[in-house]
Design a protein that fits this description.
The complex is a heterodimer of chains A (about 325) and B (about 300). Chain A has about 325 residues and is mainly α. In chain A, about 65% of the residues lie in helices and about 0% in strands. In chain A, a hairpin with a 5-residue loop joins strand 1 and strand 2. In chain A, helix 5 runs antiparallel to helix 12, helix 10 packs across helix 12 and helix 14 packs antiparallel against helix 15. Chain B starts with about 25 loop residues before the first helix and ends with a helix. The chains are: A mainly alpha (about 325), B mainly alpha (about 300).
Chain lengths: ~325, ~300
Protein backbone atom coordinates (compact mmCIF):
# COMPACT_ATOMS: atom_id res chain seq x y z
CA UNK A 1 0.00 0.00 0.00
CA UNK A 2 1.63 3.17 -1.12
CA UNK A 3 0.75 6.28 0.79
CA UNK A 4 0.88 9.56 -1.05
CA UNK A 5 0.28 12.92 0.52
CA UNK A 6 -2.53 14.78 -1.10
CA UNK A 7 -2.59 18.46 -1.46
CA UNK A 8 -5.30 19.09 1.08
CA UNK A 9 -3.16 17.57 3.79
CA UNK A 10 -3.77 14.27 5.46
CA UNK A 11 -3.88 10.85 3.96
CA UNK A 12 -6.60 9.72 1.69
CA UNK A 13 -8.37 6.48 1.97
CA UNK A 14 -10.60 5.98 -1.02
CA UNK A 15 -13.61 4.76 0.87
CA UNK A 16 -13.33 7.59 3.36
CA UNK A 17 -13.26 10.16 0.59
CA UNK A 18 -16.46 8.78 -0.87
CA UNK A 19 -18.12 9.04 2.55
CA UNK A 20 -17.03 12.62 2.96
CA UNK A 21 -18.11 13.65 -0.50
CA UNK A 22 -21.60 12.30 0.09
CA UNK A 23 -21.89 13.86 3.49
CA UNK A 24 -20.30 17.12 2.55
CA UNK A 25 -23.24 19.27 3.62
CA UNK A 26 -23.26 17.80 7.13
CA UNK A 27 -21.29 20.01 9.41
CA UNK A 28 -20.65 17.42 11.99
CA UNK A 29 -20.05 13.82 11.10
CA UNK A 30 -20.97 11.62 14.08
CA UNK A 31 -19.15 8.56 12.78
CA UNK A 32 -15.69 9.96 12.39
CA UNK A 33 -14.27 11.80 15.34
CA UNK A 34 -11.33 13.77 14.00
CA UNK A 35 -10.78 14.02 10.31
CA UNK A 36 -9.38 16.85 8.30
CA UNK A 37 -11.61 18.35 5.70
CA UNK A 38 -10.79 16.91 2.32
CA UNK A 39 -10.40 19.72 -0.13
CA UNK A 40 -10.65 17.31 -3.08
CA UNK A 41 -7.72 18.96 -4.74
CA UNK A 42 -6.18 16.97 -7.51
CA UNK A 43 -2.51 17.34 -8.23
CA UNK A 44 -1.74 19.62 -11.17
CA UNK A 45 -0.06 16.83 -13.07
CA UNK A 46 -3.19 14.75 -12.91
CA UNK A 47 -5.55 17.45 -14.05
CA UNK A 48 -4.00 17.79 -17.49
CA UNK A 49 -4.48 15.11 -20.07
CA UNK A 50 -1.97 12.33 -20.43
CA UNK A 51 -0.51 13.50 -23.71
CA UNK A 52 -0.12 17.04 -22.41
CA UNK A 53 1.65 15.69 -19.35
CA UNK A 54 3.93 13.58 -21.54
CA UNK A 55 4.86 16.61 -23.58
CA UNK A 56 5.30 18.80 -20.54
CA UNK A 57 7.92 16.66 -18.90
CA UNK A 58 10.05 16.49 -22.00
CA UNK A 59 10.05 20.26 -22.15
CA UNK A 60 13.27 20.92 -20.19
CA UNK A 61 15.30 18.57 -22.39
CA UNK A 62 13.62 19.90 -25.50
CA UNK A 63 14.37 23.49 -24.64
CA UNK A 64 18.00 22.75 -23.85
CA UNK A 65 18.50 20.83 -27.07
CA UNK A 66 16.63 23.44 -29.08
CA UNK A 67 18.96 26.13 -27.90
CA UNK A 68 22.19 24.20 -28.02
CA UNK A 69 21.65 21.84 -30.93
CA UNK A 70 18.85 22.89 -33.25
CA UNK A 71 19.67 26.58 -33.34
CA UNK A 72 23.38 25.99 -34.15
CA UNK A 73 22.40 23.58 -36.92
CA UNK A 74 20.18 26.19 -38.53
CA UNK A 75 22.86 28.78 -38.03
CA UNK A 76 25.47 26.61 -39.74
CA UNK A 77 23.22 26.09 -42.73
CA UNK A 78 22.63 29.81 -42.95
CA UNK A 79 26.29 30.68 -42.50
CA UNK A 80 27.35 28.22 -45.16
CA UNK A 81 25.78 30.58 -47.62
CA UNK A 82 27.42 33.70 -46.29
CA UNK A 83 30.82 35.20 -46.39
CA UNK A 84 31.81 35.67 -42.80
CA UNK A 85 35.34 36.71 -42.14
CA UNK A 86 37.40 38.72 -39.72
CA UNK A 87 35.07 41.64 -40.07
CA UNK A 88 32.38 39.62 -38.24
CA UNK A 89 29.84 40.88 -40.74
CA UNK A 90 27.85 38.19 -42.51
CA UNK A 91 27.29 38.84 -46.17
CA UNK A 92 24.85 36.56 -47.91
CA UNK A 93 26.34 35.19 -51.09
CA UNK A 94 24.30 32.12 -51.86
CA UNK A 95 26.16 29.14 -53.28
CA UNK A 96 29.46 30.88 -53.80
CA UNK A 97 31.10 28.94 -50.98
CA UNK A 98 30.00 25.64 -52.45
CA UNK A 99 31.34 26.52 -55.89
CA UNK A 100 34.60 27.40 -54.24
CA UNK A 101 34.68 24.06 -52.45
CA UNK A 102 34.25 22.07 -55.62
CA UNK A 103 37.09 23.92 -57.32
CA UNK A 104 39.36 23.64 -54.31
CA UNK A 105 41.98 20.96 -54.87
CA UNK A 106 42.79 20.87 -51.17
CA UNK A 107 39.23 19.93 -50.33
CA UNK A 108 39.42 16.84 -52.52
CA UNK A 109 42.84 15.87 -51.22
CA UNK A 110 41.82 16.20 -47.59
CA UNK A 111 38.54 14.40 -48.11
CA UNK A 112 40.45 11.62 -49.80
CA UNK A 113 42.73 11.45 -46.76
CA UNK A 114 39.65 11.32 -44.53
CA UNK A 115 38.17 8.47 -46.52
CA UNK A 116 41.43 6.51 -46.48
CA UNK A 117 41.70 7.09 -42.74
CA UNK A 118 38.10 6.02 -42.14
CA UNK A 119 38.23 2.92 -44.33
CA UNK A 120 41.58 1.80 -42.97
CA UNK A 121 40.66 2.33 -39.33
CA UNK A 122 37.29 0.60 -39.67
CA UNK A 123 38.73 -2.32 -41.62
CA UNK A 124 41.47 -2.97 -39.09
CA UNK A 125 39.33 -2.45 -36.00
CA UNK A 126 36.45 -4.53 -37.31
CA UNK A 127 38.49 -7.55 -38.39
CA UNK A 128 40.65 -7.58 -35.28
CA UNK A 129 37.63 -6.90 -33.08
CA UNK A 130 35.71 -9.73 -34.68
CA UNK A 131 38.57 -12.19 -34.13
CA UNK A 132 38.97 -11.17 -30.50
CA UNK A 133 35.22 -11.31 -29.89
CA UNK A 134 35.07 -14.80 -31.34
CA UNK A 135 37.97 -15.82 -29.12
CA UNK A 136 36.37 -14.29 -26.03
CA UNK A 137 33.10 -16.02 -26.84
CA UNK A 138 34.68 -19.39 -26.12
CA UNK A 139 34.29 -18.92 -22.36
CA UNK A 140 37.88 -19.52 -21.49
CA UNK A 141 39.11 -19.22 -17.99
CA UNK A 142 40.07 -15.58 -17.65
CA UNK A 143 37.47 -14.01 -19.92
CA UNK A 144 36.03 -11.71 -17.26
CA UNK A 145 39.44 -10.36 -16.34
CA UNK A 146 40.44 -10.12 -20.00
CA UNK A 147 37.30 -8.20 -20.89
CA UNK A 148 38.06 -5.70 -18.15
CA UNK A 149 41.63 -5.11 -19.25
CA UNK A 150 40.83 -5.10 -22.94
CA UNK A 151 38.53 -2.11 -22.40
CA UNK A 152 41.37 0.21 -21.28
CA UNK A 153 42.48 1.59 -24.64
CA UNK A 154 38.98 2.89 -25.26
CA UNK A 155 38.36 4.27 -21.77
CA UNK A 156 41.36 6.56 -21.39
CA UNK A 157 41.13 10.02 -22.96
CA UNK A 158 42.05 9.75 -26.66
CA UNK A 159 44.48 12.62 -26.20
CA UNK A 160 46.37 10.66 -23.54
CA UNK A 161 46.46 7.60 -25.78
CA UNK A 162 47.72 9.74 -28.65
CA UNK A 163 50.45 11.23 -26.50
CA UNK A 164 51.59 7.76 -25.50
CA UNK A 165 51.70 6.66 -29.12
CA UNK A 166 53.45 9.87 -30.12
CA UNK A 167 56.16 9.01 -27.66
CA UNK A 168 56.30 5.45 -28.96
CA UNK A 169 56.49 6.67 -32.54
CA UNK A 170 59.47 8.88 -31.78
CA UNK A 171 62.25 8.46 -34.39
CA UNK A 172 65.20 8.34 -32.07
CA UNK A 173 64.02 7.34 -28.64
CA UNK A 174 60.78 5.64 -29.51
CA UNK A 175 60.14 2.15 -28.31
CA UNK A 176 58.54 0.98 -31.54
CA UNK A 177 61.68 1.52 -33.58
CA UNK A 178 63.71 -0.10 -30.85
CA UNK A 179 61.55 -3.20 -30.78
CA UNK A 180 61.54 -3.58 -34.55
CA UNK A 181 65.28 -3.08 -34.74
CA UNK A 182 65.93 -5.63 -32.05
CA UNK A 183 63.67 -8.16 -33.76
CA UNK A 184 65.54 -7.50 -36.96
CA UNK A 185 62.40 -6.62 -38.89
CA UNK A 186 63.79 -3.30 -40.07
CA UNK A 187 67.35 -2.22 -40.58
CA UNK A 188 66.92 1.50 -40.03
CA UNK A 189 64.63 3.39 -37.68
CA UNK A 190 61.41 4.43 -39.38
CA UNK A 191 60.15 7.96 -39.09
CA UNK A 192 56.56 7.16 -38.31
CA UNK A 193 55.18 10.64 -38.03
CA UNK A 194 57.58 12.62 -40.20
CA UNK A 195 57.32 10.51 -43.31
CA UNK A 196 54.49 11.70 -45.50
CA UNK A 197 53.23 8.34 -46.65
CA UNK A 198 53.78 6.58 -43.34
CA UNK A 199 52.12 9.25 -41.19
CA UNK A 200 48.57 8.46 -42.27
CA UNK A 201 49.13 4.75 -41.65
CA UNK A 202 50.46 5.57 -38.18
CA UNK A 203 47.29 7.55 -37.44
CA UNK A 204 45.16 4.66 -38.65
CA UNK A 205 46.97 2.27 -36.33
CA UNK A 206 46.39 4.52 -33.33
CA UNK A 207 42.72 4.98 -34.15
CA UNK A 208 42.19 1.25 -34.59
CA UNK A 209 43.98 0.61 -31.28
CA UNK A 210 41.57 2.96 -29.51
CA UNK A 211 38.47 1.70 -31.31
CA UNK A 212 38.94 -2.08 -31.03
CA UNK A 213 37.61 -2.47 -27.44
CA UNK A 214 34.38 -0.77 -28.44
CA UNK A 215 33.94 -3.15 -31.38
CA UNK A 216 34.72 -6.10 -29.12
CA UNK A 217 32.06 -5.09 -26.59
CA UNK A 218 29.35 -4.73 -29.19
CA UNK A 219 30.22 -7.86 -31.18
CA UNK A 220 30.57 -9.96 -28.04
CA UNK A 221 27.10 -8.93 -26.90
CA UNK A 222 25.77 -9.88 -30.30
CA UNK A 223 27.58 -13.22 -30.29
CA UNK A 224 26.21 -14.09 -26.89
CA UNK A 225 22.68 -13.59 -28.13
CA UNK A 226 23.03 -16.50 -30.59
CA UNK A 227 21.64 -19.62 -28.89
CA UNK A 228 24.08 -22.44 -28.40
CA UNK A 229 21.68 -25.06 -29.73
CA UNK A 230 22.12 -23.77 -33.25
CA UNK A 231 25.82 -24.61 -33.15
CA UNK A 232 25.09 -28.04 -31.73
CA UNK A 233 22.52 -28.73 -34.41
CA UNK A 234 24.95 -27.61 -37.08
CA UNK A 235 27.75 -29.81 -35.80
CA UNK A 236 25.41 -32.77 -35.63
CA UNK A 237 24.54 -32.13 -39.25
CA UNK A 238 28.23 -32.35 -39.99
CA UNK A 239 29.16 -28.72 -40.54
CA UNK A 240 32.81 -27.84 -40.15
CA UNK A 241 33.89 -24.91 -38.01
CA UNK A 242 34.23 -22.58 -40.95
CA UNK A 243 30.83 -23.54 -42.33
CA UNK A 244 29.32 -23.00 -38.92
CA UNK A 245 30.82 -19.54 -38.87
CA UNK A 246 29.55 -18.54 -42.30
CA UNK A 247 26.11 -20.10 -42.13
CA UNK A 248 25.15 -19.70 -38.49
CA UNK A 249 27.18 -16.92 -36.90
CA UNK A 250 27.43 -14.35 -39.66
CA UNK A 251 23.76 -14.19 -40.70
CA UNK A 252 22.53 -13.94 -37.13
CA UNK A 253 25.16 -11.34 -36.33
CA UNK A 254 24.11 -9.06 -39.16
CA UNK A 255 22.14 -6.47 -37.12
CA UNK A 256 24.93 -6.16 -34.57
CA UNK A 257 27.52 -5.94 -37.32
CA UNK A 258 25.60 -3.16 -38.97
CA UNK A 259 25.34 -1.12 -35.80
CA UNK A 260 28.99 -1.68 -34.96
CA UNK A 261 30.19 -0.74 -38.43
CA UNK A 262 27.95 2.30 -38.51
CA UNK A 263 29.13 3.67 -35.18
CA UNK A 264 32.75 2.82 -35.97
CA UNK A 265 32.64 4.54 -39.34
CA UNK A 266 30.92 7.62 -38.02
CA UNK A 267 33.41 7.82 -35.18
CA UNK A 268 36.39 7.42 -37.50
CA UNK A 269 35.11 10.05 -39.89
CA UNK A 270 34.56 12.71 -37.25
CA UNK A 271 37.43 12.09 -34.84
CA UNK A 272 39.62 15.09 -34.25
CA UNK A 273 41.58 14.45 -31.05
CA UNK A 274 43.94 11.86 -32.50
CA UNK A 275 44.95 13.81 -35.58
CA UNK A 276 45.33 17.06 -33.68
CA UNK A 277 47.54 15.55 -31.00
CA UNK A 278 49.74 13.35 -33.14
CA UNK A 279 50.50 15.34 -36.24
CA UNK A 280 48.17 18.34 -36.39
CA UNK A 281 48.00 17.96 -40.14
CA UNK A 282 51.11 15.99 -40.58
CA UNK A 283 54.37 16.71 -42.29
CA UNK A 284 53.26 19.46 -44.62
CA UNK A 285 49.66 18.53 -45.14
CA UNK A 286 50.04 14.81 -45.55
CA UNK A 287 47.60 13.99 -42.77
CA UNK A 288 45.19 16.87 -43.16
CA UNK A 289 41.70 15.49 -42.87
CA UNK A 290 38.34 17.07 -43.53
CA UNK A 291 37.87 17.70 -39.81
CA UNK A 292 41.16 19.55 -39.48
CA UNK A 293 40.39 21.51 -42.63
CA UNK A 294 37.13 22.69 -41.08
CA UNK A 295 38.94 23.58 -37.86
CA UNK A 296 41.75 25.45 -39.61
CA UNK A 297 39.36 27.40 -41.79
CA UNK A 298 37.38 28.45 -38.75
CA UNK A 299 40.07 29.27 -36.23
CA UNK A 300 43.22 29.81 -38.23
CA UNK A 301 42.11 31.49 -41.42
CA UNK A 302 39.01 32.90 -39.75
CA UNK A 303 36.82 32.06 -42.74
CA UNK A 304 33.68 31.13 -40.87
CA UNK A 305 31.46 31.01 -43.92
CA UNK A 306 33.71 28.64 -45.84
CA UNK A 307 34.14 26.48 -42.76
CA UNK A 308 30.37 26.25 -42.37
CA UNK A 309 30.00 25.22 -45.99
CA UNK A 310 32.58 22.48 -45.44
CA UNK A 311 30.63 21.39 -42.36
CA UNK A 312 27.47 21.05 -44.44
CA UNK A 313 29.35 18.89 -46.93
CA UNK A 314 30.62 16.77 -44.07
CA UNK A 315 27.09 16.28 -42.72
CA UNK A 316 25.90 15.24 -46.18
CA UNK A 317 28.69 12.66 -46.40
CA UNK A 318 27.75 11.37 -42.94
CA UNK A 319 24.12 10.98 -43.97
CA UNK A 320 25.28 9.12 -47.09
CA UNK A 321 27.29 6.77 -44.90
CA UNK A 322 24.25 6.06 -42.71
CA UNK A 323 22.06 5.44 -45.75
CA UNK A 324 24.69 3.15 -47.22
CA UNK A 325 24.83 0.98 -44.14
CA UNK A 326 21.08 0.76 -43.67
CA UNK A 327 20.60 -0.22 -47.30
CA UNK A 328 23.38 -2.78 -47.47
CA UNK A 329 22.58 -4.42 -44.16
CA UNK A 330 18.87 -4.51 -44.67
CA UNK A 331 17.52 -7.00 -42.17
CA UNK A 332 14.06 -7.82 -40.95
CA UNK A 333 13.69 -5.95 -37.73
CA UNK A 334 11.88 -8.17 -35.34
CA UNK B 1 33.94 -67.70 -17.95
CA UNK B 2 35.36 -67.22 -21.36
CA UNK B 3 35.90 -63.42 -21.01
CA UNK B 4 39.64 -63.73 -21.20
CA UNK B 5 39.33 -65.13 -24.69
CA UNK B 6 37.28 -62.26 -26.03
CA UNK B 7 39.46 -59.68 -27.70
CA UNK B 8 37.94 -56.36 -26.78
CA UNK B 9 40.34 -54.25 -28.72
CA UNK B 10 39.08 -55.07 -32.17
CA UNK B 11 35.43 -54.31 -31.88
CA UNK B 12 33.99 -50.86 -31.32
CA UNK B 13 30.77 -50.74 -29.41
CA UNK B 14 28.12 -48.15 -30.07
CA UNK B 15 29.34 -46.24 -27.07
CA UNK B 16 32.52 -45.43 -28.83
CA UNK B 17 30.89 -43.70 -31.74
CA UNK B 18 31.56 -39.98 -31.56
CA UNK B 19 33.86 -40.28 -28.59
CA UNK B 20 37.10 -38.49 -29.05
CA UNK B 21 39.87 -40.53 -27.57
CA UNK B 22 41.27 -38.10 -25.07
CA UNK B 23 43.88 -40.56 -24.16
CA UNK B 24 46.16 -40.44 -27.05
CA UNK B 25 49.42 -39.01 -28.18
CA UNK B 26 50.38 -35.41 -27.59
CA UNK B 27 49.48 -34.33 -31.11
CA UNK B 28 46.04 -35.88 -30.82
CA UNK B 29 45.48 -33.78 -27.72
CA UNK B 30 46.63 -30.68 -29.53
CA UNK B 31 44.20 -31.44 -32.32
CA UNK B 32 41.30 -31.72 -29.91
CA UNK B 33 42.03 -28.52 -28.05
CA UNK B 34 43.26 -26.62 -31.09
CA UNK B 35 40.34 -24.23 -31.01
CA UNK B 36 41.01 -23.24 -27.43
CA UNK B 37 44.78 -23.00 -27.89
CA UNK B 38 44.29 -20.73 -30.85
CA UNK B 39 41.90 -18.58 -28.87
CA UNK B 40 44.36 -18.27 -25.98
CA UNK B 41 47.16 -17.31 -28.38
CA UNK B 42 45.04 -14.71 -30.10
CA UNK B 43 43.97 -13.20 -26.80
CA UNK B 44 47.53 -13.14 -25.52
CA UNK B 45 48.71 -11.31 -28.62
CA UNK B 46 45.92 -8.79 -28.37
CA UNK B 47 46.52 -8.27 -24.67
CA UNK B 48 50.17 -7.50 -25.33
CA UNK B 49 49.30 -5.00 -28.03
CA UNK B 50 46.58 -3.36 -25.95
CA UNK B 51 48.44 -3.14 -22.66
CA UNK B 52 52.02 -2.48 -23.70
CA UNK B 53 51.48 1.20 -24.61
CA UNK B 54 49.83 1.77 -21.25
CA UNK B 55 52.67 0.00 -19.46
CA UNK B 56 55.13 2.10 -21.41
CA UNK B 57 53.36 5.31 -20.51
CA UNK B 58 53.27 4.44 -16.83
CA UNK B 59 56.92 3.49 -16.52
CA UNK B 60 58.04 6.50 -18.55
CA UNK B 61 56.29 8.63 -15.98
CA UNK B 62 58.52 7.19 -13.30
CA UNK B 63 61.79 7.49 -15.18
CA UNK B 64 64.50 10.06 -14.70
CA UNK B 65 65.56 12.37 -17.50
CA UNK B 66 68.77 10.50 -18.19
CA UNK B 67 66.98 7.23 -18.52
CA UNK B 68 64.31 8.58 -20.82
CA UNK B 69 66.69 10.27 -23.23
CA UNK B 70 69.31 7.57 -23.19
CA UNK B 71 70.46 5.71 -26.26
CA UNK B 72 68.82 2.42 -25.50
CA UNK B 73 65.32 2.47 -24.02
CA UNK B 74 65.03 0.49 -20.82
CA UNK B 75 62.04 -1.76 -20.44
CA UNK B 76 62.38 -2.04 -16.71
CA UNK B 77 63.07 1.10 -14.74
CA UNK B 78 66.55 1.29 -13.30
CA UNK B 79 66.07 4.36 -11.10
CA UNK B 80 62.41 5.06 -10.45
CA UNK B 81 61.59 8.56 -9.31
CA UNK B 82 58.58 10.57 -8.31
CA UNK B 83 60.09 13.84 -9.42
CA UNK B 84 57.97 14.08 -12.57
CA UNK B 85 54.75 14.02 -10.63
CA UNK B 86 55.92 16.82 -8.38
CA UNK B 87 57.09 18.90 -11.32
CA UNK B 88 53.84 18.75 -13.22
CA UNK B 89 51.98 20.09 -10.23
CA UNK B 90 54.48 22.78 -9.30
CA UNK B 91 55.27 24.45 -12.57
CA UNK B 92 51.94 24.06 -14.34
CA UNK B 93 48.27 24.63 -13.60
CA UNK B 94 47.64 20.88 -13.62
CA UNK B 95 45.49 21.06 -10.51
CA UNK B 96 43.21 23.58 -12.22
CA UNK B 97 42.85 21.29 -15.22
CA UNK B 98 41.77 18.43 -12.99
CA UNK B 99 39.37 20.63 -11.09
CA UNK B 100 37.80 21.97 -14.27
CA UNK B 101 37.32 18.57 -15.80
CA UNK B 102 35.87 17.15 -12.60
CA UNK B 103 33.41 20.03 -12.18
CA UNK B 104 32.27 19.96 -15.80
CA UNK B 105 31.85 16.19 -15.83
CA UNK B 106 29.92 16.09 -12.54
CA UNK B 107 27.57 18.96 -13.35
CA UNK B 108 26.91 17.67 -16.86
CA UNK B 109 26.05 14.22 -15.53
CA UNK B 110 23.78 15.60 -12.82
CA UNK B 111 21.88 17.83 -15.24
CA UNK B 112 21.56 14.98 -17.71
CA UNK B 113 20.09 12.78 -14.99
CA UNK B 114 17.66 15.46 -13.81
CA UNK B 115 16.43 16.44 -17.23
CA UNK B 116 17.00 13.32 -19.26
CA UNK B 117 15.40 10.58 -17.16
CA UNK B 118 11.99 12.18 -17.04
CA UNK B 119 12.11 12.95 -20.75
CA UNK B 120 13.10 9.36 -21.54
CA UNK B 121 10.26 8.14 -19.35
CA UNK B 122 7.84 10.26 -21.31
CA UNK B 123 9.09 8.87 -24.62
CA UNK B 124 8.81 5.33 -23.30
CA UNK B 125 5.34 5.59 -21.82
CA UNK B 126 3.28 8.36 -23.29
CA UNK B 127 2.67 8.34 -27.01
CA UNK B 128 1.11 11.53 -28.23
CA UNK B 129 0.92 13.13 -31.61
CA UNK B 130 4.43 14.14 -32.61
CA UNK B 131 6.25 12.22 -29.89
CA UNK B 132 8.02 9.94 -32.33
CA UNK B 133 9.01 12.96 -34.42
CA UNK B 134 10.55 14.67 -31.43
CA UNK B 135 12.34 11.46 -30.49
CA UNK B 136 13.70 11.20 -34.02
CA UNK B 137 14.91 14.80 -33.87
CA UNK B 138 16.71 14.16 -30.61
CA UNK B 139 18.44 11.15 -32.09
CA UNK B 140 19.22 13.04 -35.28
CA UNK B 141 21.26 15.46 -33.20
CA UNK B 142 23.77 12.68 -32.83
CA UNK B 143 24.16 12.31 -36.58
CA UNK B 144 25.62 15.78 -36.84
CA UNK B 145 29.36 15.58 -36.25
CA UNK B 146 30.30 17.92 -33.42
CA UNK B 147 33.00 19.48 -35.58
CA UNK B 148 30.34 20.86 -37.88
CA UNK B 149 28.87 22.94 -35.08
CA UNK B 150 32.05 24.53 -33.79
CA UNK B 151 31.45 27.83 -35.57
CA UNK B 152 27.92 28.62 -34.38
CA UNK B 153 28.59 27.32 -30.88
CA UNK B 154 31.72 29.43 -30.61
CA UNK B 155 29.91 32.53 -31.81
CA UNK B 156 26.99 31.83 -29.50
CA UNK B 157 29.18 31.34 -26.45
CA UNK B 158 31.18 34.41 -27.31
CA UNK B 159 28.01 36.52 -27.50
CA UNK B 160 26.85 35.14 -24.16
CA UNK B 161 30.23 35.88 -22.67
CA UNK B 162 30.80 32.24 -21.79
CA UNK B 163 34.14 31.78 -23.47
CA UNK B 164 36.71 30.54 -20.97
CA UNK B 165 33.88 29.83 -18.57
CA UNK B 166 33.01 26.47 -17.07
CA UNK B 167 29.31 27.11 -17.70
CA UNK B 168 29.90 27.31 -21.43
CA UNK B 169 31.71 23.97 -21.37
CA UNK B 170 28.90 22.43 -19.31
CA UNK B 171 26.26 23.58 -21.78
CA UNK B 172 28.15 22.21 -24.76
CA UNK B 173 28.81 18.91 -23.03
CA UNK B 174 25.11 18.58 -22.26
CA UNK B 175 24.45 18.96 -25.99
CA UNK B 176 27.01 16.23 -26.68
CA UNK B 177 25.71 13.68 -24.19
CA UNK B 178 22.00 14.28 -23.56
CA UNK B 179 20.62 12.53 -26.70
CA UNK B 180 22.54 9.33 -25.99
CA UNK B 181 21.50 9.50 -22.34
CA UNK B 182 17.83 9.78 -23.27
CA UNK B 183 18.18 6.94 -25.75
CA UNK B 184 19.66 4.53 -23.21
CA UNK B 185 17.16 5.45 -20.49
CA UNK B 186 14.27 5.07 -22.90
CA UNK B 187 15.39 1.52 -23.60
CA UNK B 188 15.57 0.73 -19.91
CA UNK B 189 12.19 2.29 -19.15
CA UNK B 190 10.57 0.27 -21.88
CA UNK B 191 11.63 -2.85 -20.03
CA UNK B 192 9.87 -1.80 -16.82
CA UNK B 193 6.28 -3.12 -16.89
CA UNK B 194 3.50 -0.58 -17.15
CA UNK B 195 1.60 -2.23 -14.32
CA UNK B 196 4.02 -0.72 -11.85
CA UNK B 197 3.03 2.88 -12.40
CA UNK B 198 -0.59 1.91 -12.74
CA UNK B 199 -0.40 0.32 -9.31
CA UNK B 200 1.20 3.46 -7.97
CA UNK B 201 -1.55 5.63 -9.49
CA UNK B 202 -4.25 3.43 -7.99
CA UNK B 203 -2.68 3.86 -4.59
CA UNK B 204 -3.09 7.58 -4.91
CA UNK B 205 0.11 8.98 -6.30
CA UNK B 206 0.06 11.69 -8.88
CA UNK B 207 1.82 10.96 -12.15
CA UNK B 208 4.99 12.70 -11.19
CA UNK B 209 5.07 11.15 -7.76
CA UNK B 210 4.67 7.73 -9.34
CA UNK B 211 7.76 8.45 -11.36
CA UNK B 212 9.79 9.98 -8.59
CA UNK B 213 9.00 7.47 -5.85
CA UNK B 214 8.55 4.22 -7.73
CA UNK B 215 10.06 4.09 -11.19
CA UNK B 216 13.17 6.15 -10.57
CA UNK B 217 14.61 3.92 -7.84
CA UNK B 218 13.95 0.80 -9.89
CA UNK B 219 15.76 2.08 -12.94
CA UNK B 220 19.04 2.32 -11.07
CA UNK B 221 20.76 -0.14 -13.39
CA UNK B 222 20.08 1.83 -16.52
CA UNK B 223 20.72 5.08 -14.72
CA UNK B 224 24.13 3.91 -13.59
CA UNK B 225 25.04 2.76 -17.09
CA UNK B 226 23.95 5.97 -18.77
CA UNK B 227 25.48 8.33 -16.22
CA UNK B 228 28.82 6.51 -16.12
CA UNK B 229 29.13 6.68 -19.88
CA UNK B 230 28.13 10.35 -19.82
CA UNK B 231 30.73 11.07 -17.17
CA UNK B 232 33.46 9.27 -19.08
CA UNK B 233 32.64 10.97 -22.34
CA UNK B 234 32.70 14.38 -20.75
CA UNK B 235 35.96 13.57 -18.99
CA UNK B 236 37.58 12.54 -22.28
CA UNK B 237 36.20 15.42 -24.32
CA UNK B 238 38.73 17.53 -26.20
CA UNK B 239 37.37 19.50 -29.16
CA UNK B 240 35.14 22.01 -27.42
CA UNK B 241 37.52 22.28 -24.51
CA UNK B 242 40.15 23.40 -26.97
CA UNK B 243 37.85 25.90 -28.66
CA UNK B 244 36.07 27.42 -25.71
CA UNK B 245 38.83 27.59 -23.14
CA UNK B 246 41.65 30.08 -23.29
CA UNK B 247 43.25 30.20 -19.86
CA UNK B 248 43.65 27.63 -17.18
CA UNK B 249 40.41 28.84 -15.63
CA UNK B 250 38.45 26.55 -17.91
CA UNK B 251 40.84 24.22 -19.68
CA UNK B 252 40.26 20.52 -19.78
CA UNK B 253 42.63 17.71 -18.88
CA UNK B 254 43.00 16.81 -22.55
CA UNK B 255 43.59 20.40 -23.59
CA UNK B 256 46.21 20.70 -20.89
CA UNK B 257 47.92 17.61 -22.25
CA UNK B 258 48.08 19.10 -25.74
CA UNK B 259 49.50 22.27 -24.24
CA UNK B 260 52.34 20.17 -22.96
CA UNK B 261 53.30 19.28 -26.50
CA UNK B 262 53.49 22.82 -27.76
CA UNK B 263 55.78 23.81 -24.94
CA UNK B 264 59.33 24.79 -25.71
CA UNK B 265 60.94 21.74 -24.23
CA UNK B 266 58.89 18.60 -24.55
CA UNK B 267 59.61 16.60 -21.48
CA UNK B 268 58.32 13.17 -22.29
CA UNK B 269 58.51 11.73 -18.81
CA UNK B 270 56.50 14.60 -17.39
CA UNK B 271 53.94 14.22 -20.15
CA UNK B 272 53.59 10.52 -19.44
CA UNK B 273 53.24 11.18 -15.71
CA UNK B 274 50.48 13.65 -16.53
CA UNK B 275 48.86 11.13 -18.86
CA UNK B 276 48.98 8.49 -16.15
CA UNK B 277 47.19 10.77 -13.70
CA UNK B 278 44.65 11.71 -16.34
CA UNK B 279 43.77 8.10 -17.04
CA UNK B 280 43.40 7.03 -13.40
CA UNK B 281 39.64 7.76 -13.38
CA UNK B 282 39.29 5.59 -16.47
CA UNK B 283 41.11 2.77 -14.71
CA UNK B 284 38.88 3.10 -11.67
CA UNK B 285 35.73 3.17 -13.75
CA UNK B 286 36.72 0.15 -15.77
CA UNK B 287 37.53 -1.92 -12.72
CA UNK B 288 34.50 -0.92 -10.67
CA UNK B 289 31.79 -0.30 -13.23
CA UNK B 290 32.66 -2.50 -16.15
CA UNK B 291 29.29 -4.18 -16.03
CA UNK B 292 27.46 -0.87 -16.34
CA UNK B 293 29.66 0.40 -19.14
CA UNK B 294 29.08 -2.72 -21.20
CA UNK B 295 25.35 -2.54 -20.47
CA UNK B 296 25.14 1.05 -21.55
CA UNK B 297 27.08 0.55 -24.76
CA UNK B 298 25.07 -2.45 -25.87
CA UNK B 299 21.70 -1.14 -24.72
CA UNK B 300 20.73 0.56 -27.89
CA UNK B 301 22.98 -1.38 -30.21
CA UNK B 302 22.08 -5.02 -29.79
CA UNK B 303 18.40 -4.68 -29.09
CA UNK B 304 18.08 -3.17 -32.51
Amino acid sequence: MIACEQEGGGYINSSLSILLIQEDHIMFNPFISSVKKNTNKVHFFDRISESRYGFLITLPSLLILLMVAVYPVLRVIYMSMTEFGITMQAKFVGQKNFFEIFTDINFFRYTRNSLIYTLGAVAISFTVGMIIALALNKNLRFTGFLRTIALWPWAIPPVVASITWKWMYNDVMGILNDLLLRCGLISQPLSWLSNGSLALASLIIVHAWIDIPFVIVLLLAGLKSIPQELYEAASIDGASNWKQFTKVTLPLLKPTMMVTLLISTAFAFRTFDIVFTLTRGGPGDATELLVTYIYNNAFQFLRFGYSSALSVIMVIITILIVLFYTKVFRTNYY
Amino acid sequence: MFSNLINNDIYMSSNDLGKIHSSGTFWKKVKKYRGKILAYLVLLCYLLVAIFPLYWMIITGFKTNTEVYSDRPTYIIKHPTLRNFITIFKGRPTLYYFRNTMVVALVTTIICILVGTIAAFSFARYKYKGSSFIMFCILAVRIFPPISLIVPLYLMMSKLGLIDNLLGLIIVNIYLTLPFFIWIMKGFFESIPKELDEAARIDGCSRFQAFRLIIFPISFNGLAAASIITFMWTWNEFLFGQILAVTSAAKNISVGAVDFITDLNISWNQMCAYGFLASIPAFIFIILFQKYIVQGLTAGAVKG
